[in-house]
Amino acid sequence: MEDRSHKVLLALVMLFLFAVIVLQYVCPGTECQLLRLRALSPAAAADPYRAEDETPARFVPRFNFTAGDLLRRGGFNIKGDDLIVFLHIQKTGGTTFGRHLVRNIQLEQPCECRAGQKKCTCHRPGKRETWLFSRFSTGWSCGLHADWTELTNCVPSVVDSKKEVRLRPSR
């Protein structure tokens, strides 16, 4: 009798493992509706920063941005003397974003990018000066992967060296 109960238990374990494997083939990842049991529970809509036992949260978000903060617009005058300096922080999607700045932004005079070249010319409308300081528009003018300190010291001298003294804006 004991041997038979072991066989039944083994059969149930095997059936469970088979069901789990089949479920993984039918519903891979977290997209499967059968696996979203937690979404149906009332605790799923609760505050993610509150512990289940109602103890004070160990993690408190530091940046509570309002919708107005996220939707505010900055004043940038492409026809004036304003300059965007792109600080590339490694491993944060900066290369993709930098490429997006020179290739995909809809402007009165978009950047001119030639096939096979990494640098694009981003001139202000009607002028021969750039509005964007990044590796995709000016190259590595301040060195490879320049940080904030290097850019702060380097950008004004690089940008102002290309203008006559009387045309240099006060920064």
UniProtKB/TrEMBL annotation:
Membrane topology, from the record: Single-pass type II membrane protein
Predominant subcellular localization, coarse grouping: membrane
- Which keywords appear in this protein's UniProt record, sorted alphabetically? Glycoprotein, Membrane, Signal, Signal-anchor, Transferase, Transmembrane, Transmembrane helix
Q: Which reaction does it catalyse?
A: alpha-D-glucosaminyl-[heparan sulfate](n) + 3'-phosphoadenylyl sulfate = 6-sulfo-alpha-D-glucosaminyl-[heparan sulfate](n) + adenosine 3',5'-bisphosphate + H(+)
- Name the source's superkingdom: Eukaryota
Q: What does the sequence similarity comment in the record state about its family?
A: Belongs to the sulfotransferase 6 family.
Gene name per UniProt: Hs6st2
Answer whether the UniProt record assigns the keyword Repressor to this protein: no
Q: What class of enzyme is it?
A: transferase
Q: Give compartment(s).
A: Membrane
Q: Which Gene3D superfamilies match?
A: P-loop containing nucleotide triphosphate hydrolases (3.40.50.300)
In UniProt terms, what function does this protein have? 6-O-sulfation enzyme which catalyzes the transfer of sulfate from 3'-phosphoadenosine 5'-phosphosulfate (PAPS) to position 6 of the N-sulfoglucosamine residue (GlcNS) of heparan sulfate.
Extent of the signal sequence: 1-24
Q: Name one GO cellular component term.
A: membrane
Protein name, UniProt field? Heparan-sulfate 6-O-sulfotransferase
The Enzyme Commission number assigned here is: 2.8.2.-
Q: Give one Pfam family.
A: Sulfotransfer_2
